[in-house]
Amino acid sequence: MDIVMIEDLIVTRNLSIKSDLITLKDVVENERFYSIPLYQRLYVWGEDQVTTLLEDLERATKTPDNYYFLGGTMIISNKNKYDLIDGQQRFTTLWLLSYELRNELESFAYAHINKVYVKRLSFAIRDFADQYFTNPDNYSLLTNEEKLQLEGITQAQKTIQTFLNAEERGNTREFKQKLTKLLFEKVAFIETEMPAGIDENRLFEVLNNRGVQLQHHEIIKSKLIQYLPDDEKRKYAQIWEACSIMDNYIEKNIKDVCGFKWGDITQKETEEDTEIGLPADIINRIAKSTSDYEDKHLSEILELDKYDLKENNEDYDYDSGKVRSIISFPMFLQHTLRIFIFKNKYEGCSTSKVAEVNEKKLIETFENHFYPYYLNETNVKAFIELLLKLRINFDKHVIKWIEKEANQEIHLIKRLYQNKKVLQRKELLSNEGFALLQSMLYHSQQITTLYWLTPFLHKTLQEDNSENLYKYLLKLDNLMFCSELSEELSLRSWNLIENELTVFKADISALRKPSGTTFWSYWFYKTDFILWYLKASEQGDDWKNYRMTKKNSVEHISPQNRREYDENILWDENETLSDDEKKKRLDDFGNLVLLAVGMNSEYSNKSFAEKRTSFFEKKRLDSLKSALIFENQKWNWTLCEKHRNEMIALFVDYFTKTM
């Protein structure tokens, strides 16, 4: 079978590629069995790779409620098993770990069928490997040559055994229990099932010899481009490619992908720095680009490292600094899809089944929400043109991670400026609140969805003024997260597209509940933004230059386990309070701040005075809420209640000013 047949099966015959996020528990419950084909090498991971994975897993046990993502596997159904085309090294390591840990994981290593233990992982044809995996105690029965071929596996087993039983772990039994639970329930990987009938050997060769991973958005692009006339495929493929590179600005991507000079995509020369955008006819300019392009098959996309860009003499200096996007291209595609569907609702479109943002289900999302309704030339063109418009607006109006100093990134919005010699991205100084608000939303929401981007990006199609967009986002944030709206965020954000955002009934009742460490981190981020918004002008430069940073640990100001000498407590010794009443005071919003994990360990059960001293010794202002609390020389229940009520009053004042 020629490799072109892969594309024929995937695209022309409209076969679907299934992709799911699964755990070992899912493997067991779905009674799945796997085989490593003959064309695959046996286990080749060395000690460093195994140890790195083990150390990562050990760190993951400290946050047991979070998933640990292990990457992906690629499979093809083969009779009653699945052939592992890609990811067998990780999968084999999981099997070895399961064998060593046993308990719940034994059901992953071996299935119990009709009173017989059947191994979950087998090796095609290689009987000696199968014999070993049936029972590693059979090692002594193997020939020297077979033992040599299994050396990687046996060395990995020794590495795992040494790691699990190391004395520095203290209570190894407790650690093993935590690791077992994590591996079975929270270690997740993306399992991609390719259509039956594909030449496994050739696909494996393309994926591994070339070192290229099949990206799902490339499959979608390949399918959509099929619906365009031959003379327009080049143009729309290049637009897609330029939009897909998220860690540069769009003008750089277009220049590189199309082989342009800067003069091909800029305005007339000007002596003074002038803010510019891409030309209105940029799509036509792309169509006329002189870079060589062929109508590539999916196979060629897999084997192609990058576009072969022709050399040209630069006519401008360009400076954007080192940047990194806050979202991936699959996420950006799904936000674009949601906006496209909103603008082009098909008959029977149900708001109860809106497209979600889930990077792991990118192909499935398009199969369910685009392919059945929009697969024609007109809609494909409209979608890719919308993709470009939104990408231009995304780079103009949405924060990016900007490297200010070595290894230090902050959230900034940069605009494109041009003069006679230089094209440069410069920081937006006139509206720093716009970037700070977005930074607050980024840190306080699930970064794999950021649903606020759907209505916000839609708004940028109607409004280009940053001040007006800032006002819009202030309202959008209030409605999405501080109101009585209770739908899932995917639906809530969808329903707020083109909403006038005028009907608002605040719900901040959560701030009066003694929720302690279960408080939603958003309330702390929002409090800091409100304090900056309302009070920064009255404070010093440290307030005015305040930046949001990653914080995920709720800390008590008056500690839960106070030291005997700490006189700053939330009840008097002569007060008759039950343990439950004392806990409610400790868990009050007024007694809590949000800190980075490292700072949380520094605070621990230190006294108020010690925490206050540490706060003022810090060179950086990490929390505005903390700054207000530590203005107090002492701390007690009266001051705690006062602080909480003042914060609630500031929320109310803020809503009045921003809605």
Give me a quick take on this structure.
Helices cover 47% and strands 12% of the residues. It has 659 residues and is an alpha/beta fold. The radius of gyration is 29 Å and the shape is globular.
What labels describe this entry?
disordered N terminus; 659 residues; six-stranded mixed beta sheet
How helical, in percent, are the residues?
40-55%
Give the assembly state of these chains.
single chain
The number of helical segments is: 30
Mean pLDDT: 84
Helix/strand/pairing class, anyone? alpha/beta
Total domain modules:
3
> Which percent band covers the strand fraction?
5-15%
Based on DSSP secondary structure assignment, what is the total number of beta strands? 17
List low-pLDDT spans: 1-5, 290-313
What's the shape? globular
Largest sheet: 6 strands, mixed
User: What order do the strands of the largest sheet run in, or round the barrel if closed?
Assistant: 1-8-3-4-2-7
N/C terminus separation: 63 Å
**Global Rg:** 29 Å
Description:
The protein folds into three domains: 18-193, no CATH class; 215-274 and 281-305 and 314-499, no CATH class; 510-658, no CATH class. Helices cover 47% and strands 12% of the residues. The chain contains 30 helices and 17 strands. The chain has a six-stranded mixed β-sheet, sandwiched between helices. The longest helix is centred in the last third of the chain and has 22 residues, at 637-658. It is globular and about 80 Å long. The relative contact order is 0.07.
